Membrane protein
Amino acid sequence: MARRPLPRILSNGSAQLARSRELARTAADSATDVLHPLITITRGLRRLAAAGRRRWADTPKDRRGPLLFLLSSVILVVALAPYGPLLAAVALMAAAAWMGRDPGAKRPAGPDESQTKRLRSLYEALVPYFSTAEDPAPLYAHGGEWEEAFPAYDFDGTGRISRLLIRYPAYFTDGEAESRARIEQLLHAKSGRGREYHFTWDEEGNELTVTVLGPLPTDIAAQRFVTAPGETVLGFTDPTGVQRTLPLTYGEEQRDVPPVVWRTGVRSTEPHLLVVGEPGSGTTTLVRSIALQALQHGDVVIVEGGGTGEYACLTGRDGVLAVECGPAGAVASLEWATHETERRLIAANRARQEGYPAPEDIKRPLWLLLDRPSALGHLAAAEGRKDPQSLLQVPLRHGRAANVTVVVAEQFDGLDGLSEAVRQHTRARVVLGPATPDRLAEILGAPPHTTPAKDVPPGRGYARLGGGPVHRLQVPATPDPYDDATSETHRRAVLDLLPGRSTPADAAEPVPTVTVAAKTVPAEAVTAEAVVPETVATKAVVTEAVAAEAVPAEG
């Protein structure tokens, strides 16, 4: 059977069809450009009509009559006014043009030349880490295409990467900390130094998301935070790190900022805190901030090893039992704290055995704040006294049950001087100031998911509460109000938070001392008032006789 030939228009008219389609496309584009204003106005009129129908449908039936009367009145006034219809038509066309405009300017189809060069450079830098010779279809190869490896990216106003999604092969050892650290260090160097990056590893999907973090606010002054009893605000962090915000006051305005809240008390999982940092990093500021918050519901004993008078503003205040800066006074105060912890344990145990609630005198929290205790340890050894840290074993071990909280602040060069009890029982950790990733991982127990910045403001660092995640942290500004370098705003903020004085300032002696009531009472009659020091003053030189008058341990 002979094969019939194809029609001529199908056999040799492909070029004419292509030319016709191109002419039709060109004509359509030209018509669209010419008729673009009309198309915009028509689209706007359609949207206005749709909005009017929705508004009419949403209006209750009992209100449609007054609404219709109002519209009729407006139309009548416009019709009778000079040039009213013309002005109404112009206003309608303007509203239609505004409603019919494009929702937004179209984003460029891809990165520009400089951005493409930056992405390609980053792709080439990752090739040695994300490729092997045995891979038959490598995702990363020298001279390869970066579009498949970087499916999503964003740039900031300076042309640097602000967000990047990276795909990597499944055989990359993303479960090893060293391998991840190498990639994070490389991305930090290639994407631009001087910024902090957050890395989110999706091991299941073999994806890494790199996000540039904004700076944490440094203008947060000390103030009353909206917290429950037993909650202490250590500082503030990123919105993605926590699921809670606090309303804060900035002069006349208010903002909601996500905090890092440390929970203490009987049901706390991490009742004690260790703060580490370089000189000037803000460790003393954090301890001062904790003291001001603790005085709202509890009593405070402060031991200052630096001897610089950073806590002089708390001298003689209600709830401040002692502020010591010498070895003798520190030993006497911590011995009393040990006896008080034991007394609380005995009283709570006796109440439970008898079926009664815990006495009120042991429910009030007791805070032991030690700033640079290793310095006092050296002084105590020179004077032949015991190390004050040796007296912290009982409060650290039994502090949760006795409602006693210990906060220790130390500098990096004094970490070797911390006792084993302090290291073991302070699992809530804060590191302030510049630190290497290895040092952060050693102190916090886990590396942060962000790159540490080289230059950080005072009070800037990282916090980790037990086995939780590592948070960026900015401590609220709580300077010494007696320091001449303190601004008037911060000075007034701290002074407003200080409790009232327990004794008049003019009644204080020139050389304050510590007097402890020496009372011998049976264990059943021991109360908080019987063992609390009657007069406690700071920066005192405590004699041997006064230290020997401390209340003995309850037997």
Notes: Residues 507-555 have pLDDT under 50 and may be disordered. The chain is about 35% helix and 15% strand. The first helix runs from residue 8 to 11.
